[in-house]
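[Q] Does anyone have a clean structure-token version of this?
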Amino acid sequence: MIDLLGPAFSSTLLRMTAKRLGIALVLALAACQTQDPCARSGTACGGDPTGTWQVVGACREPVYLPPVPITYDNQPASMARQSPPEPTSSDWCSGLTYDPGRGLTNFVFPHDALALSNGGQVNYNADGSFGAILSLTGYGQVDLSATCLQRFGVVPTCDQLGTKLETSAANDGSYHDVMCSDDGDLGCHCTYRITFNPAGGALNGVWSANGTVLNHFASGFLLPSLADYCVDPSGTMTLWSHDQTDLWEQAGLRMVVLQHM
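[A] Here you go.
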């Protein structure tokens, strides 16, 4: 091809095109970056954490662990390009077992990540020990199809199912206010409130500070939990996860704000 515009113009045009492509690539990469729901809004400054603190704020990523498949042994396996066989027990049934004589005998309440509720208490003692009483709260819901409800030869109404689930939840102690309603297709839509105390509600161990990093060596855990922290003169202390680790070994917990008591 004959360059009718001259080599200087062609060279300039190529540089401009490359520059525009570079800018477009940078903008595309920036747009594809995942937004951090618990992005740090302050700077770690260290300080003396000794004292009794109350949880007044927290941020936890919406992590979700897929449930362990709930299936019977020796189910037929599907071959490639073939439709899967009808399962004898389905994951979407949440492990529901309904005995004709005894009623509900098993159920798994599914839920996403729970939030660290305000009001929890953390103690950093002068002797190097620490204790934390934490509580996680949230809401859950599940849809149970007609196939799930009827596969044991029992056809409970949604009111009956809700009563049975409420009894099961009362025995567990973590699930409350269970309500089941007709979904319009012979199935039930159930909702419930969740209050869960990890590790029995209390964490204990020893702590140490290294600059702006707070080390927690909790009893029962092999590795320490690290937190970047800042004690503010106003009487608040903020803890951020160190290198994207979990605060106090609570999955997804990235930031906690504490008020000195």
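[Q] Thanks! Anything notable?
[A] Residues 51-65+89-260 form one domain.
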